[in-house]
Sequence to fold (409 residues):
Amino acid sequence: MASSIRGRAVRLLDNFINQTLVLSTRNISRSLSENSIRGDYQGCQSSVLLTSETRGRARSSYRRLSSAGRALRQVQEPGRQASPLSPAHRVSLVDTDLRHMFDDIKKELESQFELQEIAKYYFDGQGKAVRPLITVLMSRAINTHLHDEDRLFNTQWQVAKVTEMLHTASLVHDDVLDASDTRRGKPSVNNLYGQRKAVMAGDYILSVASTMLARIRNEEVIVVLSQVLSDLVQGEFMQLGSKENENERFAHYLKKTFKKTASLIAYSCKAVAILSGADDSLQEVAFQYGRNVGIAFQLVDDLLDFVSSSSTMGKPTAADLKLGLATAPVLFACEKFPELNPMIMRRFQEPGDVQKAFELVHKSDGLEQTQFLARQHCQEAIKVISTLKPSEEQKALITITDKVLNRIK
Fold:
């Protein structure tokens, strides 16, 4: 089964993103506890009622995910040494940088009381902060590569904060569009304050982030990060549609995934490279690292929507099917179960579509193929970042690919 999974996933990579990726892989999944896969999806508008047989298949699918990989070798030039970093060491590299980030952002959002209260709601330090973490590490890694010093420029620090603000504003707007009730284990902004105020708060976060970006006074960086806003909106529009042809549908999904998730990470990495004085080739290294990690992050997110629980994720699971969205696990499952195709085209709107699609995904190898594709993108990220001069931050960026793949929420 593993060889067939590998073949199909690689063909998709060749067809849709025209890249040849190294096929060495690593086992990156953690087994979920028995109570992690449940039939009670809190916060969803309707429940997916799982039979005992379906729950068993869900558990079995995740166990297969935990054993499907092979050892991943870090790609390095001869003579380079990359000793592994402990999680504590990895965090300590940027702990000083990130410690006051949310306080700094809250100061920027000072305004009329209720508006600032809503705008600050998600800046409580409970998020993963993956995007500013990667941005800071990339800044220091490239500064070491170019200048033999790992210090963080103030302009790069501003980009890291803007990155988190753009991401958070997109979450506020996503929750409105999806009518989500929860986010990060607590009521969503739109649930507490209503949709109109949530939309305005999201717009306000974007406006403040734009002002902070303008203060950097670098036209190239402003152009690069402005592309993120364009991509976010285009990604939302792409999510509203689908393609009849299966191959076009997966290409559409990957392009949408880049625009909605990976664009922010990729262009933030490119922006800090520009601020470090990087040439075009080094800017591309930073961009491709962010692009591949970002796509892998979303692939894992789409996988977790089928195997994790609401309590673990801090938001509703099995939500994509209810929203009419066909993500990677469903698209891969179509290879074995073509009866999913008409469900996708009608956006799972007929009675029983969500339940049936959920079961077919677990009967297929769609989850394993999604995990394999995420591993390939992380392998490509490791490949490009290994071209930088060795440093603690470069090693941390390599280690982060495991964090992305191993996450359970």
About this structure: The longest strand covers residues 182-183. The two ends are 27 Å apart (CA to CA). The chain has one domain: 2-406. The mean pLDDT is 80.
